[in-house]
Amino acid sequence: MIAVDALWTFTVMVGLLTLTPGLDTALVLRTAAIGHRRRAWGVVLGIQSGTLAWGVFTSLGVTALLTASEVAYRTLRWAGAAYLVWTGARMLWATRRPGGATAVRTRTQTGRETAHGAGTSADAGAPERDTLSGGWRQGAATNLLNPKVGAFYVALLPQFIPADAPHLAAGVLLTGVHILLGVLWACALIALAHTVRHQLQRPVVRRRLDRVTGAVVAVFGVRLALQD
């Protein structure tokens, strides 16, 4: 189906891509660092769901439309850029107020609400909740609205699929390798964040972390908008 040497070459290439610091790494590390482990895993699952979708679309020839149609590519690119800039700006805005980056309402056993540190809001000014579904939506949107991922798969994936092999099965197999490497890397990032979580419990440190992450996300959005 797929030659062993071709599979190994693909693994090395996507492995290097996975280890390269980027938007995915920043989102996972930041979410886990503020103590939101469920949301961090949701982000990981969302990113990998997007990767699987791109792999399937590429295997079926759908993503070739991105390279063939300038309108389709530009539309997706501007949508992704707007989403990233908006997300980064919300994170930066939430750190503008003292305590705004860490105040989250939780109910005590007596039914009263108390505030304690838990992370910034990136969604319409509401506090981020440590939920798997919320992280999944963020990770999936970040990945699927990035046309560069689709363009990468269009350029790379067909080179490793033999002409006589079923394209969908071979494409999903190769994409599975990429997903496996991404999950392993995410495990390392979340474990690293867990070891330094005590140092990150201070509100000042969390605000700085969110400012850095928000700036990184916004810069990625601006670069996506300006680059062809």
Brief synopsis:
With 228 residues, this protein is mainly α. It has helices spanning 4-19, 23-33, 37-59, 64-68, 70-94, 132-144, 147-156, 167-195, 203-226; strands spanning 103-107, 113-117. 68% of the residues lie in helices and 4% in strands.
Order of helices and strands: HHHHHEEHHHH
Q: What is the quaternary state of this protein?
A: single chain
Number of helices: 9
Structural class call reads mainly alpha
Q: Could you tell me the mean pLDDT?
A: 78
Largest sheet features: 2 strands, antiparallel
Domains, number: 1
The low-confidence parts are 100-126
Give, in spatial order, the strands making up the sheet with the most strands: 1-2
Termini separation: 35 Å
The helix fraction, in percent, is: 55-70%
Q: Please report which band the strand proportion falls in: under 5%, 5-15%, 15-25%, 25-35%, 35-45% or over 45%.
A: under 5%
Q: What Rg, in angstroms, do the CA atoms define?
A: 19 Å
The geometry reads as globular
The number of distinct β-strands equals 2
Descriptors for this entry?
9 helices; 4% strand; 68% helix; mainly alpha; two-stranded antiparallel sheet; single chain; 228 residues
Can you describe this structure?
The chain is mostly helical and 228 residues long. It has one domain. 68% of the residues lie in helices and 4% in strands. It is built from nine helices and two strands; from the N terminus they run αααααββαααα. The protein has a two-stranded antiparallel sheet with strand order 1-2. A hairpin with a 5-residue loop joins strand 1 and strand 2. Helix 3 (37-59) packs parallel to helix 6 (132-144) and helix 5 runs antiparallel to helix 9 (203-226). The radius of gyration is 19 Å and the shape is globular. The protein starts with a helix and ends with a helix. Residues 100-126 have low confidence and may be disordered.
